[in-house]
Automatic annotation (TrEMBL):
Gene3D superfamilies: 3.40.50.2300, lambda repressor-like DNA-binding domains. It comes from the Bacteria. Residues 2-56 form the HTH lacI-type domain. Pfam families: LacI, Peripla_BP_1. This is LacI family transcriptional regulator. Keywords: DNA-binding, Transcription, Transcription regulation. GO terms for molecular function: DNA-binding transcription factor activity; transcription cis-regulatory region binding.
Amino acid sequence: MTNIKDIARLAGVSVSTVSRVLNNYKYVANDKRESVLKVMEELKYTPNKNAIDLIRGETRTIGVILPYNNNPAFDQLLNGILNIALENDYLITVLPSKYSKEREMEYLQKLKSKLFDGIIITSRANDWETILPYSEYGSIVSCEYTQHTEIGCSYMDRYSSFLDAFQLLKNKGHRAVAFTTARLESNSTKQMIAAYNEIFGELPPDYHISDCHCLEDGYGAAKQFLQLPERPTAIYANGDEVAGGMYLYAKSEQMKVPADLAIIGQENQPVGIGLGLSTVDHQLTKIGEQACSLVIKKSREKVKIPYRIVERGSV
């Protein structure tokens, strides 16, 4: 079996020069690089990636813990991560979790085993105290804020964005405001409820529906809200797809948006743009880009990405 010593001998260069060519180092004379590549092609030599990773002490692979793979918000985060990975010649391995604590721990164990240079956690099931010990084995970066110094993060101020969205609806004259969330037990849901309470006071029990992820969920949520004895005049949806479903239900009932029902969504997604829905844009693609940059730089910085509210005709 051909090895790098054989290639060095046939190319008339040192073993270290062959190693530099395999690792794509810049500082190799062109004639020596071409000689090595020519011998490799003639011998049909395929380098062992694991051996190269061992030599250079890195895999140039980043794991991304992703709860769902068919969710527009997580797609935006992943898109940003892929943008930076491609620019820097890194590979991305998607690690679907479905919020399983056990599955997350399996992925962190892979970081400990040096299968990844780092891991990006887009959203998590485990608490930070469980995750922190693994930060000594590689970079761990979160897409939500964490005060722990061992973990870098790329994040937005979600609570402030909720306050601004509810305040916008209040400023438009709405007092009966309902909203939807994805997971009842998530920090995001807790923050949204707290923001609602701060702007409108105590949340009526029927004005919050959880487990909403897609257009069909939004359609069903709007139907449920609008059949209440005291129906809301405005709804804040936890995504533009969910908001799009609400819009379609309102139209099916010959309701005018925003005269009969105001709707605001999240994340500035194509369906919202197409339907002219107002939205809270958390700039998730930028958060993903910054998270990937932090892993590549092995940085533990806390980078805050600004959100923006985009007003269209639905409020």
